[in-house]
Amino acid sequence: MKKLLFAFLIFLFFASHASAQRFGYVDTQLIVEKMPDYATAQGQLDKMTEQWQKELEGKQKELGKMRLDYEAEKLLFTEDMKKQRLNDLEAKEKEIREFQTKIFGVEGQLFQKRVELMKPIQDKLADAIAKVARKRKLSFIFDKAGDVSMVYSDPTHNYTDIVMEELGLKEKPKK
């Protein structure tokens, strides 16, 4: 009976270790910032944003000038002329709001361009992480840069450098 109990305990011990899952973490923000593709994409986005911002500022200056002109001349206008100028001001304000939404809105051109430029980078990173996970036989890899908060992280489980190696962003360590 003791041998059976002993064998059962040994079985439980090995069974619990056999199903143990291995994990690690990476800092995707650090990795992405070192990728040349990211710097290129970010530069393109910054350039486009600057152009659109200048265009928006030009429209806002034009609206400001229209308001100043209206205020300076409104005493000379008839009621119909005042209404027409106010309608013109409202139309300009609406045009500016529509431009802002079209470019900088949630589904605007800037958002769409960001998705278009960043998707290949994210795909490349995801592939590298998957390769490292398979090579190292990891069940999970957490992203230290994401919303997952880690109270403690043992550096032995940090696979950031290995993923960077996989992407060719860092020399392989010399043994």
Structure description:
- It is a single chain.
- This protein is 70% helix and 5% strand.
- With 175 residues, it is mainly alpha-helical.
- The protein has one domain (19-166).
- Strands 1-2 form a two-stranded parallel sheet.
- The model is unreliable at 4-9 and 11-15 (pLDDT under 50).
Low-confidence region ranges: 4-9, 11-15
How large is the count of helical segments? 6
- What structural class do helix, strand and pairing data support? mainly alpha
> How many strands appear in the DSSP assignment?
2
Average the pLDDT over all residues and give the rounded result.
83
The description of the largest β-sheet is:
2 strands, parallel
Task: Trace the largest sheet across and list its strands.
Answer: 1-2
Give a quick set of tags describing it.
175 residues; mainly alpha; two-stranded parallel ribbon; 6 helices
Give the structure's gist in a few sentences.
The protein is mainly alpha-helical and 175 residues long. It has helices spanning 2-18, 28-34, 36-73, 79-104, 109-135, 160-166, and strands spanning 23-26, 140-143.
Topology of this protein?
Blueprint (H helix, E strand, L loop, with lengths): L1 H17 L4 E4 L1 H7 L1 H38 L5 H26 L4 H27 L4 E4 L16 H7 L9
Parallel strand pairs: 1-2
Helix pairs in contact: 2-6, 3-4, 3-5, 5-6
